[in-house]
Hints:
Layout: H1 2-14, H2 37-46, H3 49-57, H4 64-69, H5 82-94, H6 98-108, H7 110-125
Helix pairs in contact: 1-5, 2-7
Amino acid sequence: MLLQKVLFYYLAVITVLALKVPLNEFKGSFSAMTMHNAGIELARNRVPINYLSRSVINAELFDPNTAILAGFLDQVVAEDKLMSTAVYVAKQMLTLSIPVHHLTKLKTRKEILIALDTAIKLDSEVSDIA
Length: 130
């Protein structure tokens, strides 16, 4: 099951790599709404500071290799290496102790999870349609 999930993730991500890659949470520049607070918190947690304004405020689209630098993607592989890379990563993940992995992930992400709870509450109270 985990192998299938990782393979699906890789297939889903890689199929769009010929395109320009936006910040996944961003939809604001293309609508009349600002980015939601939760999306901004996710970006602050993942996107390096030198790409934060470019991706969140300016809605800049990046080529796949720049999207790696911006923290949108973990890696880009050639089409002929896609399946072997996905299988390799999935097999690596299968070696993890899932309970330990889960608890470590929660500890690592504690601050962002608290910030997201706050942002989601704020988003539910505020409407900022332009």
